[in-house]
Structure formats: structure tokens, C-alpha cells
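Customer ticket, subject: "Can you confirm the structure for Uronate dehydrogenase?"

Message body: Hello, I'm evaluating your service for our small team and ran a test protein. I'd like someone to confirm that this is what the system normally returns, since I don't have a reference to compare against.
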Amino acid sequence: MRIAFTGGSGKAGRHVIPYLQEQGHHVLNLDLQPLDLPGVDNLIVDLTDSGQVFNALSSYANFGELEPGTGMPKFDAVVHFAALARILIKPDNETFRTNTLSTYNVMEAAVKLGIPKVIFASSETTYGICFADGEVKPDFIPVDETHPTVPHDSYAMSKICNEACGRSFQARSNIDIYGLRINNVIEPQEYASDFPAYVTNPDLRRRNIFAYIDARDLGQMVQCCLTTDGLGYEVFNVSNDDLSVALSNDEVRKRYYDGVPVVRDMSGNETMYCNRKAKEMLGFAPQHSWRDVLTEV
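Agent reply: Thanks for trying us out. I re-ran your input and got the following:
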């Protein structure tokens, strides 16, 4: 597939794009900074500028595409990961403006240009736990896509608005628009550098609902979305299968979620951030775990 990928130079994108290349896709990275990776084309784009987005999504990706003489090739899909990645990078109003306007522009251009699929990054933060003032516990566990999304911070608010835009653009166009509620993205080297602290102090993982997603498995999730057609508008939790701490599921529930309703049987090291919908509807099957690296735990 010919794919426009926004934000490919970021933490997640620089792992997802190589995965997509391995599946045979051609990727054009739309970002403010280029991704220095063989085979990846880059276009510097301000996604908050609608004109630049329309132009980028109807452009050549490289000089080689001029050779056939058959006109401008079309994109088969847009993967939209570009965003200010959390609160406290820029002022709250700028975080909200950047994330909502860029997403609106990408979806509008994709729909009006006839691109048949948009996959966009939403967030675990939509559940209102990650960036809460103080401790907020889930309404129930495991947290699945039916859990209320009532955040109090500008980043998560922007993601909720983006989901509303996705639903509305899909209703208008009938293309496929899939939103990924991505949990804390972990790069392979972070298992050795960061996870020993999580083993020692599980409190560090409370705001992430004791979950994570390996950046490589996130690539697989995007591939699953690219190869699954006809779902219309859907949102999916994206996480690995196991908890990000050395405690068992039962121990986490007793220590952190006393009194929180448990809506189904849970056991072992099962994640509190439910990924069953992605498994059942898309065939998502995470392959990586921090336990493969920290074998002494």
C-alpha cells in the first residue's frame, strides 16, 4: 500500500514505519522533522495548515513517481500519529489547538481526496486516569472501550474531540476510520533502562493502568488495521497482554483497585487495559514482553 504517515519521526513512528516497510508498504512521512531511514520519503508539513495537508495528501512522494507518466498516484491510507505527545510540553490551549486542528485537517483532506482509510492515534488518557489531578481509579476493570471517557486535561480532551471528528467524518463518507487508544509506548531499549524501577516500585505505573504497548507490536496493530476493511468507525485499546509490573493481576487488584468492580474473571499477569476487541476484530496478537528481557523477575 502507498501510505501517508504523519508524525513518523516521533517515538512511536520511528518503530512503526520500519514494521510497515517490512510488510511491503511504501511510506511517505509527513512531519516537521524528517525520519532518516532508508526507503522512507519525507515531506515537511505543518499539519495545522489545511492547505499544506491537502497538498501533501495529493502529492508525489519522490522523483521516481514522476517516471511512469501516469499522473499523481493516490494514497491507499493515512496513518495519523502526529501530535503534541502529552501535557506540559506547550501551554494547554496550544496542545489542544495543535492536536485537534491537525487531526481535523488530516481527516477532512483524506475524505475529500477519496482516501479510503484513516487510522489515527487516540490515547489511554481518554479514560481520565493518566493525567488526573490526584488519583482517579477506573470505574471498572479491566478497562475496555466501553469505559467512560471524561478526562480533565487538555491532551486527553483533544483526543476525545479527535474521536468525535473521526466518527463524524466516517458517517459522512462511509470510509474506514479506526482510532487507536494507545497505551504507554515502550521502545525495546526501555525494558532494561526503565522496567527495573517499575518492578521495585509498582506505584510508578498506576497512571498508565499498569499497562504498556511495545512499539513493535504497535506496528503490528497498524498493519492489522490496514488489512481489515469494512468496519466503518471503530476505536480500539492497544496494549500488550501482560502487566508492566512484577505483581500478579490479583495482587494489583488488591493493592490498587480495592472496591473497583471487576467485570470478568482475570488471572495471572493479564493486563488491566483490555485489548480483547483488537484481538477479536483485527487479529492483533502482541509478540513482545518486558519479561523476555528482565528474565530474573
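A couple of notes from the result: The helical segments are 13-22, 50-56, 92-112, 154-173, 190-200, 215-227, 249-256, 276-282. The beta strands are 2-6, 26-31, 41-44, 77-80, 117-123, 176-182, 185-186, 213-214, 233-238. Feel free to reply with more questions.
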